[in-house]
Amino acid sequence: MVKCRDGEILNNVFSVLSDPTRRAIITQLAKGEMTVMKLAEPFEMSLPAVSKHLKVLEKAGLVSVRKEGRFRYFYLNPASIDCANEWLTDLRQFWTSQLSRLERFLDQDTTYE
């Protein structure tokens, strides 16, 4: 079980997601599990380079792998993304509340004669 309030998990997730290639790999994996060969097709980089990105994603808990024969299939592991989403949702609730309070304040009739 992933502890979503763990700052290290959030740091890892956001650090890993800061790379556009890794975000693109995650987007591809959202369509279903894939091999390194399939994942590498849209990129102008070597298979070892794609494998390095996958290792970083796996270490951060965003991607998991299953082996079938000589093939390794990568797939999304939503637990880490769920943690980031939970943190962002809490932050959104805070800012929505703050903006609502500001809106109410600005809507008050504050004109004095």
Commentary on this structure:
By secondary structure, the chain is mainly alpha-helical. It has one domain (7-103): Orthogonal Bundle (Arc Repressor Mutant, subunit A). It has helices at residues 7-17, 20-29, 36-40, 47-59, 78-107, and strands at 63-68, 71-76. The protein has a two-stranded antiparallel ribbon. The N and C termini lie far apart (61 Å). The model has no long low-confidence stretch (mean pLDDT 84).
List the helices and strands and how they pair.
Elements: H1 7-17, H2 20-29, H3 36-40, H4 47-59, E1 63-68, E2 71-76, H5 78-107
Antiparallel strand pairs: 1-2
CATH level 3 topology: Arc Repressor Mutant, subunit A
**N-to-C SSE string, H for helix and E for strand:** HHHHEEH
CATH class: Mainly Alpha
CATH superfamily: Winged helix-like DNA-binding domain superfamily/Winged helix DNA-binding domain
Strand order of the largest sheet: 1-2
Determine the mean pLDDT: 84
Unreliable parts: none
Q: What does the radius of gyration come to?
A: 21 Å
Terminal-residue CA separation: 61 Å
Structural class, please?
Answer: mainly alpha
InterPro entries: ArsR-like_HTH, HTH_ArsR_DNA-bd_dom, WH-like_DNA-bd_sf, WH_DNA-bd_sf
GO molecular function, one term: DNA binding
Pfam family, one: HTH_5
Keywords: DNA-binding
